[in-house]
Automatic annotation (TrEMBL):
The lineage of its organism: Eukaryota, Fungi, Dikarya, Basidiomycota, Agaricomycotina. Belongs to the bacterial ribosomal protein bL19 family. The keyword Ribonucleoprotein applies. It comes from Filobasidium floriforme. The keyword Protein biosynthesis does not apply. GO terms for cellular component: mitochondrial large ribosomal subunit. Keywords: Ribonucleoprotein, Ribosomal protein. GO terms for molecular function: structural constituent of ribosome. InterPro entries: Ribosomal_bL19, Ribosomal_bL19_sf, Translation_prot_SH3-like_sf. One of its GO terms (biological process) is translation. It comes from the Eukaryota. Pfam families: Ribosomal_L19. Gene3D superfamilies: 2.30.30.790. This is Ribosomal protein L19.
Length: 200
């Protein structure tokens, strides 16, 4: 009784394997044209790089990739120093900055935007900062990515020392949005700096 049951199971398994082979062969043939061929799937896929499988110093894959990108986009670590959290040479909110950025991917033309640094969003390779200025009596804000390849140059016009701006030790000086008088003074100072640089 047991032997007959085993034989029936073996026969059923063989029948299922034959049916699957037939169905796969049918799936690879095109009934309307014999000239049509189907590409065969590669037996082995591309191997994963070792530096992603085993990051150094126990870092996660994301941290490892961010470190590689930082080395590629900021080899001298100048921007990392400027927008660091605790470096003594870092930029503080309230500083006046001028950013020259490319207008298109060909990098043939560029435009300059100057304004006061409202705050910095530190997210590794995705670190960004926001500038605000008064243009034609209208408040304008621009957000830039620190490590973007579209940024040509970052120039510091005036650092925040706590004398010109109150509460300059804040992490963000968004209160300047409600202080048009201070913003007008900053805009006038930026404009005067531009005029003096053009004359020079």
């Amino acid at each position: 009784m047991i032997n007959s049951t085993l034989r029936c199971c073996r026969t059923a398994v063989r029948g299922m394997a034959t049916a699957s082979e037939a169905s796969s062969s049918k799936a690879q043939t095109y009934p309307f044209s014999a000239a049509v061929t189907f590409p065969t799937s590669p037996s082995t896929s591309n191997p994963t790089p070792k530096n992603l499988l085993h990051p150094k110093n126990g870092k996660s894959v994301v941290e490892h990739v961010n470190a590689q990108l930082l080395e590629a986009y900021d080899p001298a670590s100048l921007r990392k120093t400027l927008f660091s959290r605790r470096n003594p040479l870092r930029l503080k909110p309230g500083s006046v900055i001028s950013v020259a950025s490319y207008t298109d991917a060909t990098k043939s033309t560029s435009t300059v935007f100057s304004g006061v640094l409202l705050g910095i969003g530190r997210k590794g390779i995705d670190t960004s900062f926001t500038l605000r200025n008064i243009v034609n009596r209208t408040g304008v804000e621009m957000k830039f990515k620190v490590h973007s390849p579209m940024i040509k140059k970052i120039e510091v016009i005036k650092e925040a020392d706590g004398k010109g701006l109150k509460l300059a030790r804040r992490a963000k000086v968004n209160y300047l949005r409600d202080k048009p008088g201070i913003m007008n003074q900053i805009a006038a100072a930026v404009k005067q700096t531009k005029v003096s640089s053009v004359k020079a």
